[in-house]
Amino acid sequence: MRKTNVKLVAVLTVVLLMAGVMAGCGGTASNDIKIGVLNEMTGGNATMGTSSANGARMAIKEANAKGGVLGKQITAVVADNKSEPSEAANAMTKLATQDKVVAITGMFASSNAIAASSVAEATKVPLLAVGATNPKVTVDEKTNKVKDYTFRVCFIDPFQGTVGANFVLNSLNLKKAAILVDNSSDYSKGLSTFFEEAFTKGGGVVLSKEAYLQKDQDFKTILTKIKALNPEVLYVPGYYEEVGKIVKQARELGITVPIIGGDGWDSPKLIEIGTAAALNNTYFTNHYSVDNTSPTSQAFVEAYKKEYGLVPDALAVLGYDAANLLIDAIKRANSVEPAKIREALAATKDFAAITGATTLNATHDAEKNAVIIEMKDGKQVFKGAIKP
């Protein structure tokens, strides 16, 4: 975490004291059903959080137009975690204990989702994370037990890291890598570890593993060190703001090798920051591609463009899928009681999501495909899909 843990600890202490009183209080006797939509609306991951929230709101709008759920309309209670773990815990607490939502969806950054999951467990209000891929989101790292009230609609980093490593080894046929990891991010640290494990197991060699922090601006010293090692590929599992600067500065230093990353790259801001030319010969693993030609996918793309005037990115699709899955769980539970919604989420199997048929497994993680995206002249180009 980039801020101290003091605020987060204080928030969680209050939550734990309140948990006995508030457990199961998410239901509502009013004429609507409140669902929390908690995202990175401002801060370093704002484009992703906004996309996720847009997708969720569109799903809820469509559901309401069809009559809502359990005879009631759905109200989205939107909250901002400001791209900070402590703020995620604060906002999650307010949604669960003051706004009295029946369940909460959202969040891309794993650090934010991990903080929010502690509140979900304390208040017993289900959390369905959208794009947070670190294993610690749904499994307690201290006890190694699955968190009862925390789920996610995306794949996890052991799978994503392996997909990235195998793509480098088998499709690009490259064996010597350098890794540049964001040491302030659970997501980046986890994904780099899983990539390295799969890459070395497959016969690759990691020449160097260098670190930076979110909000860093100048990466040329680290990149100069990496360039001297002559790697064949550079793996950068970070978020778009720093990644754009890293790619641009790498190209300025004459590093022409392929640069690979993860789903944290998926933002229009990446091209704005990194430039289209510098991003040529780069690739990243992702949850979805707008090149998906299925009728349901294309219908979603057109509806999203009509609603927001934008082409949806993967986070918009995941936000939409998560909200629809949550609505489906409420229907299957036939109840707005958080405990019954939790049971329905845990039983989710083959849900027809835009990102693909989604089953939530024993660790509350989604089993689904990943895709490889190539950046070419400022556009995302679909390279292929990989099954778990």
From TrEMBL:
The record, for Pfam families, names: Peripla_BP_6
Q: Which keywords, in A-to-Z order, does the entry hold? A: Amino-acid transport, Signal, Transport
Origin, by domain of life? Answer: Bacteria
Note the SUPFAM superfamilies from the entry.
Answer: Periplasmic binding protein-like I (SSF53822)
A GO biological process of this protein is: amino acid transport
- Indicate the segments forming the Leucine-binding protein domain, all copies: 33-378
Renumbered to this chain, the signal peptide range is 1-23
PANTHER family on file: LEUCINE-SPECIFIC-BINDING PROTEIN, PERIPLASMIC BINDING PROTEIN OF ABC TRANSPORTER FOR NATURAL AMINO ACIDS
What family does the entry list?
A: Belongs to the leucine-binding protein family.
Its recorded name reads Leucine-specific-binding protein
Q: Can you name the source organism? A: uncultured Sporomusa sp
